[in-house]
Design brief:
The protein is mainly alpha-helical. The chain has three helices and no strands. Helices cover about 70% and strands about 0% of the residues.
Length: about 70
C-alpha cells in the first residue's frame, strides 16, 4: 500500500492487524489504533512531539516495579 495521506497510515495498520489470529485482539487493537491515530491528527502532533510522547511512555514503563505500575 502506498501511503499518501494520514488516513492511509491508519488503513495500512488496520490491514496488518486483520491478519492477527485472535478476534478479541483484533477488536481491541482496531479501537486503539483508530482512537490513537485520531488523537494524533486532532492534536496536530509534530513528529518531534510524537517521539517525545513515546519516550515518556517508555520511561514510565521503565519506572514500573512489581508493586508499583506507572503505566496502568
Amino acid at each position: 500500500m502506498i501511503i499518501g495521506t494520514q488516513q492511509d497510515v491508519t488503513a495500512a495498520v488496520l490491514a496488518e492487524l486483520s491478519r492477527a489470529e485472535s478476534p478479541r485482539f483484533r477488536d481491541i487493537m482496531k479501537a486503539a489504533v483508530e482512537h490513537l491515530h485520531g488523537f494524533v491528527r486532532d492534536a496536530k502532533l509534530t513528529e518531534a512531539e510524537f517521539h517525545q510522547s513515546c519516550a515518556l511512555i517508555a520511561k514510565l514503563g521503565q519506572l514500573t516495579t512489581a508493586s508499583h505500575n506507572e503505566v496502568c
